[in-house]
Specification:
77 residues; mainly alpha
Length: 77
């Protein structure tokens, strides 16, 4: 079973934000969001959830965040 940090790292790596880099001024918010995902994943892991369940939840949350971030990035173009 993968640990929570590995699951979040893999899900974050899968997200490319449609080829856009995260703007420097948004990186602190992105990093906070990622840290929150790690804490959530660790709590789920402690609660006995398997890595696939954690991966699905983290992936869904990343997709939501990706959509919001893309709106901000595209508004700047």
């Amino acid at each position: 079973m993968q640990n929570a940090q590995e699951v979040v790292d893999e899900e974050v790596a899968r997200r490319t934000f449609a080829g856009h880099a995260v703007p420097e001024d948004l990186k602190p918010a992105f990093d906070r969001h990622r840290a929150n995902l790690v804490q959530l994943a660790m709590s789920l892991e402690t609660a006995g959830k398997d890595s696939n369940t954690i991966r699905n939840l983290v992936g869904d949350l990343m997709k939501t965040y990706e959509d919001d971030l893309l709106v901000l990035i595209e508004a700047r173009l």
